Request: fold
Amino acid sequence: MSFYSFNKNRIDINNVQKGVDRLKINDIYRGIVNPSPTGKRTSDLAISEKLKSQEVGLSQGEENAENAVNLLNTAEGALESVQDSLQRVRELAISARSGILTDSDRSVIQGEIDDILEGVSDNLRNTEFNTIRVLDEGFDGNIQTSFSQGRTMNIENTSLETLGLDNFDVTGDFNLEDIDNAIEQVSDSRASIGAQTNALRSNINSSQIARENTLAARSNLDEDFVQSINNLRKENLLNQYRINVQRLQQENEGSELSLLR
Reply:
């Protein structure tokens, strides 16, 4: 093996290494693509970056929608408890209508109703999500479900006052329709929350599909680029192997010459 061949291979490996450096291979393995290609490769990378931005937007939109679903679930759970309590108030109100009860009996019933309604008021006032009170002050907000799309979310203001039960008293004249209307109002709020929850879950599913398709498109665009880099790495390793073999051969030849002398 001549010195000229050895030197030529060293030049070849240096050229290959320079090619790898130009492609920023270390950055690519960290997910950052910063080459300066031309022609079709520039176009592919521009598209890839746009798809990456789209994927990030869809991912964040999913997270926003999931948080919104959690907020709605928090409100729904509180309203379910409120509705159960109002049903108990209705039972007590019907009992108080009985003609065989004394005023003292009705006072006892009113005492239980007051306790229940106080618990309802506390429940409505203290139901929060991320420190946001979602029932007794209501909730109106825009949920950004993607980079360019949003969804308006609404929860009705619900309190003893809006339910018409802040002065509900069975010790005198009272109307059962007041409690029926309150129960219906809570039921309507729960139905609205359920519809909004279903819409958000549908949006999450759609975003997941869109994000998967976007990731697949990015993978197809980047596949050829990554393959070309892998080929360069293989060539680099092969040239390094050739140099090591040639070095050993030259050392052996040098040893043989020394023996002949």
